[in-house]
Amino acid sequence: MAAKFVIVSTTIDSTEKAGWLGRAMVEMRLAACVHMMPIASVYRWKGEIKTAEEYRILAKTRADLADSLVEFIKENHTHEVPEIVVTPILSGHKSYLHWLTEETGQNPATD
Description:
The protein is α+β, with helices and mostly antiparallel strands. It has helices at about 15-25, 65-75, 95-105, and strands spanning about 5-10, 35-45, 50-60, 85-90. It is elongated.
């Protein structure tokens, strides 16, 4: 079963950048809703173990918009290699998914 909806996630290093990215995604109708939350990360980068305070961004959208959303993130991200992960939503509350479809620019009655 192919997913009709996905969550696109990324991390970024400041609340201001997270807020700008999240708002732009919704304004452009690339996502219906974006959650932004502070997190602590531990990772290996160029041979060294690093720790950082970051902001996780979770953008809910239609699967057919995932590639456009990924490109938008890549073009507007400040990291050399940004984390961008697309996770399928296999099921969900029907009214919520209907709303998600409407807010990303499609009429669900015609899908």
